[in-house]
């Protein structure tokens, strides 16, 4: 039984059932021999990827467990933010994306992760009402 594959499948299923997005897992070894995990989502309706979660840890499995814990509990620890945006050259089509972060700057960092910032216009970033 491969724990890493099972954890990836569990996380992917949660995300797919929540918002229909596909999940990508990127692993890197840092210069200090830690493992970096970046979980990104691909939204086929917007044809875009967004950073969901990033962490440094001692192993892939440990990082995935922390990622799973974050996914299960992020609504209790962070705030929902809305980003209204467009991709330059896409006409007047605007999109709305949602991010759970501690503040608006973190929402923008998740939005722009692995993107050329000059290709996007962000019209609005706002904190959603807290229930």
Notes on the protein architecture:
This protein is α+β, with helices and mostly antiparallel strands and 131 residues long. It folds into two domains: 1-75, Double Stranded RNA Binding Domain (2-Layer Sandwich); 78-131, Roll (Ubiquitin-like (UB roll)). 34% of the residues lie in helices and 39% in strands. The chain has helices spanning 3-19, 60-77, 104-112, and strands spanning 22-29, 35-43, 48-57, 79-87, 95-101, 120-127. It has a three-stranded antiparallel sheet. A hairpin with a 4-residue loop joins strand 2 and strand 3. The radius of gyration is 15 Å and the shape is globular. It starts with a helix and ends with a strand.
Summarize the SSE layout with pairings.
Layout: H1 3-19, E1 22-29, E2 35-43, E3 48-57, H2 60-77, E4 79-87, E5 95-101, H3 104-112, E6 120-127
Antiparallel strand pairs: 1-2, 2-3, 4-5, 4-6
Summarize the structure.
With 131 residues, the chain is an alpha+beta fold. The chain has helices spanning 3-19, 60-77, 104-112, and strands at residues 22-29, 35-43, 48-57, 79-87, 95-101, 120-127.
Descriptive keywords:
alpha+beta, three-stranded antiparallel β-sheet, Double Stranded RNA Binding Domain, 6 strands, single chain, 131 residues, Ubiquitin-like (UB roll), 2 domains
């Amino acid at each position: 039984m491969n724990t890493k594959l099972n954890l990836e499948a569990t996380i992917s299923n949660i995300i797919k059932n929540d918002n229909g997005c596909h999940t990508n897992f990127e692993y890197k070894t840092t210069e200090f021999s830690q493992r970096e995990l970046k979980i990104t989502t691909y939204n086929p309706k917007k044809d875009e990827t967004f950073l969901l979660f990033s962490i440094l840890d001692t192993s892939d499995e440990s990082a995935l467990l922390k990622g799973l814990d974050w996914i299960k509990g992020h609504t209790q620890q962070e705030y929902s933010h809305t980003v209204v945006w467009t991709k330059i050259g896409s006409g007047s089509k605007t999109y709305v994306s949602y991010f759970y972060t501690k503040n608006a700057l973190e929402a923008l960092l998740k939005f722009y992760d692995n993107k050329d910032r000059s290709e996007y216009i962000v019209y609005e970033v706002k904190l959603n009402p807290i229930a």
